[in-house]
Amino acid sequence: xxxxxxxxxxxxxxxxxxxxILRKGTPERxxxxxxxxxxxxxxxxxxxxGLLEGLHEDAPDFLCKRQIRLQRFLxxxxxxxxxxxxxxxxxxxxxxxxxxxxxxxxxxxxxxHKGPITNWQEFEDYPWPDPEAATTNMLECYEQNLPEDMxxxxxxxxxxxxxxxxxxxxYETLCYALYDQRDLVKAISDRLMEIFQVSLRRxxxxxxxxxxxxxxxxxFKTGTLISPHDLREFVLPGHKLMARMAHDAGLPYLLHSCxxxxxxxxxxxxxxxxxxxxxxxxxxxxxxxxxxxxGDRIALLGGIDMxxxxxxxxxxxxxxxxxxxxxCLPGGGYCLGSxxxxxxxxxxxxxLAMLDEGRKFDPSSDL
Length: 367
Known about the structure:
By secondary structure, this protein is an alpha/beta fold. It has helices at 14-21, 39-49, 62-74, 120-125, 137-145, 161-169, 171-180, 182-203, 228-234, 236-248, 265-272, 287-294, 306-311, 314-328, 348-360, 363-366, and strands spanning 78-81, 92-95, 107-110, 151-154, 209-215, 253-256, 276-278, 299-301, 334-335. It has a single domain (14-361), classed as TIM Barrel (Alpha-Beta Barrel). The strands form two sheets. It has a seven-stranded parallel beta sheet with strand order 1-4-5-6-7-8-9, with helices on both faces. Strands 2-3 form a two-stranded antiparallel sheet.
C-alpha cells in the first residue's frame, strides 16, 4: 500500500458540485468530474492504495461499497449509476488492447458497416431491452449506503439516441437509410424515446439521484456524424425530453457528446436546454475557448485533453490544470476532468497529478 498521492484532503459536497454546474458563483473549491474511469485504472488505484481492505468481494454490496470508497478517495462528489442491465444486442468487433493496463480479451468496437437492424423484418424481430424489467440493485444499494455528502449522477444505459441509431443499424447502413428508409430510422428513434423515457423515470424515483447525465456521441473532428437537420428530427427531441424530465424533477441535465457540434449548439442551448456540455478535444476546440463562447449560458465540464494527458509529463499537466482553472472557474460553471474519460492508456500517475493539482487550487486566491 502506498501513501496517498494527494497533498490536500477533499470533503465531498454534492450540493457544491450542483451549484457549480448551475453557475451559482465561483465554488469554494474545484469540483472534479469524469464520465468514465476505465475498470483497469480503477483496479490499479485500488491495488496501489489498499482501497479494498475490509471489503468482501463475494458480498452482494461489494461493487457499491467499492465504488463509494474509490470515488471518495479520488475526491469526487458522486457516483454514476443507471439501471443495472439495460443492454442491447449489438454487432461488435474486437481488437488487441495495447495499453499498459491492457484489457483482458482486448477492446470491443461497434461494427460500423452493419448492425442488427437493417430492414423492417429485423426491426420487428429485434429483442428490444425492457426498461421496466431492468433491475435497480445498484441504485438501491447507493440509496442505502451513500454518505449524505455524496450523490448519484443518473447516467448509463440511457439517452444514447444518436449512438444507438448508429449501433443498431451500423453507421454505414444508417447513412444510406437516411436517404431511402427514413421511416425505419424514425421507428427506431421513436422506440428509443420510449425506452429511455421509462429508464429515466425509474432513475428519478431514487432520492440519491441529484444530477442527470446523458451520454450520446453526435460528432467527429470536423462536424456532426449525420446532418444537423437529421439530428433535429431523430436525436435532439429525445434529449429535449430527457432535459425536461430532469428539470421537472429539479435536476440539471448534462450532455456528453464527442465531436464538433457548432452547427447544433444553439439547438442544444435554446431548445434542448442542456445545463452543461462535456467532451472537449484540443484539435476541435480547447475547453477554454468554449468557456469564452458559452460560459455565460451553460457549464463546461472536463477538457484536459486525453492525448495531452497520455503524453505530457507531470509538470506540464499541473501547469495546464492551473491555466485552465484560472480561465474557466470564475463565476462557476466549470468542473475539472479529462477531455473525455480516463482510458486505460492514460498513465495513472498523470491522472492523479491532474486531480492533485485541482485539489491544491484555491479559487479565493489563485484566480
